[in-house]
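Subject: Interface between my chains keeps coming out wrong

I've been trying for a while to get a sensible model of this assembly. When I model each chain on its own everything looks fine, but I need the whole thing in one frame so I can look at the contacts. Pasting all components below, labels as-is. Any help appreciated, I'm running out of ideas.
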Amino acid sequence: MSNQNEDAFVKNLPRIYGLYTGAFVVFVLILAVLEQVGIPDRIIGYVFMFMTIAVYAAIGIISRTARVSQYYVAGRQVPPVFNGMATASDWMSGASFVGMAGSLYLLGYDGLAFVLGWTGGYVLVAVLLAPYLRKFGAFTVPDFLGSRYDGNFARVIGIIVLMACSITYVTAQIYATGIITSRFTGIQFEVAVFFGLFGILVCSMLGGMRGVTWTQVAQYIILIIAYLIPVIWLSTKVTGFPIPQLTYGSVLDQITTLEAEQGVEKSYVAAFTNYTPFNFFALIFCLMLGTASLPHVLMRFFTTPSVKAARLSVGWALLFIFLLYFTAPAYAAFARYEILSNVVGNSIASLPSWVSSWGDIGLVSIDDANADGILQFSEFTINRDVVVLATPEIAGLPYVIAGLVAAGGLAAALSTADGLLLAIANALSHDIYFKMINPEASTRLRLIVARTVLIFVAIFAAWLASTRPSDILSMVAWAFSIAASGLFAPLVLGVWWKRANKQGAIAGMLSGFILCCIYLFGTKYGGMALWFNVPNISAGVFGIPVSFVVMVVVSLLTEPPSEKIQTMVDNVRIPAGTTMTGTDDSQEIYG
Amino acid sequence: MDTQIDDGKRLQHWQKSKALMIRMMVLWFVFSFVIHGFVIVFNNVTIPVLNFKLGYYLAGQGSLIVFVIMIFVFARRQNAIDVETGVAEKDE
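Reply #2:
Try treating it as a single job with all components included. I did that and got this:
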């Protein structure tokens, strides 16, 4: 595709996505009408799943690319608003969409640690990292580490940390697609995880960063509509006012009253009933620093046209993320209110069909402890990963809304999985294969390697997901701790502390990463006791400070970085001038 | 590379950028951690009309709004620093 065509395409973006949004709304309305005339629920579920995946695959195929700079950084011409949207859906995964409101539902105030931790980190991204990494001009995060810390040793450790956090993270996404697909199509969970893979692979394999970017924008539009509609509906139904973010304050009051009647001891709005204050803040700390260390998020800011655009694009990204995050506590509150007011207190024999359809896959259970045939709040258990998906049915909304939410959850999980797999494949094909094993490799060969690696990584992650290692939110939180322990210190100090050198970075990354992994695996599988009662989702609270201290001490004990690297840091700090890598962005693969 | 920008300009730019960074980090720390340390006290206050407990509101919505505004303000201020000290990118 010539540059002129590409420019015309970028100019037309608002119109293209405007039409797309309109078409999606019409599609949902048609399904709503079909439901009313009696099309069975199962068919509606199928249509939602397969239509949306087909659309993503189509975008992936249309945006396929044969140019290196298009494949790795979407040609560095994604406008800030659209990069913001793509970053938002890259970022908001199955954990945000499917898992977060469920955790809020169970944890009350303490669950807000996730809401805070997964938004505040963007301030760190904007102020400390994104504009500088964009100026540097790398294709991948390990690329930056390898150049700043002078050699392949730092690059390789960067890749190891990247692989560890990204595979943990992608496993959680595939697990989420498995839950959604098995519930809405009736396919067995262990098989369903492999179905989700298809949609993921088509986008990330053919189009690289370019395909993933335009698919992610499309996925953002679907996921945000799907998240907002049911909550707006519930807010109107319960309070008569359609802005749930403003009305759920009163609903929280009613929840407190209903809970008192049910004899629930922990108040939903009271702080520190599930976490100690220390653990609450430790979790926020790890999630925020993890945000600023995750390679698949940072690499999105390599795609903007300028340094200025990179900064602005972080703002747009957080604004689009905010739309979902400030809705999540409302979603949780309405879900809890519906269960307390409409489900609890009914006769167990006459519960609606959603109880058995979710019960069949082991995610909702009812235990009539006092054998009176009436459901009490304490007798009702719901898995935190199904609260969002099941609420439309619980509240008696039309099935088309349940299908819409499922499609949104799928969009969220797929978009993040796309970004993660791309980050993994790029690290392996660009950093390991091209930079270390075969620098003579033709661009064509590099892309073949990237795509082959992608398939193997995806299959491995799908297999891992089919073993159900943990709930979505925990798996994702582990990824944040791993990334922050291994990468935060070398990335931030690489820009902000000129004296940071190769030896310091290597020692810092290794010590933080290893400590975090020992704590994680030791407490999860090895029967190790918790230190200071810190749960393993906050393992970074040990790894991060250790990596900082080790990096600073070792850097000071060894000689300063070379003149050349110091000049490079000076140039990264100012927006003017060319990028550092000087990579030829114009290479054609099939040329 | 970029030798046309003299060291004086670079130094001025970096000192201003650092000062802005420190101000942003202090605000970030306050709205991420400090104010939520007082949640139990704040929860005794109810926001009129909306009926939120203040402590819950700050964690569920208040801090988030601050974060979004902060990043846009930062982008504008940093850009002003770049232009003022003559190290901004040329318009493309």
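Reply #3:
Confirming on my end. Chain A touches chain B through 53 residues (CB under 8 Å).
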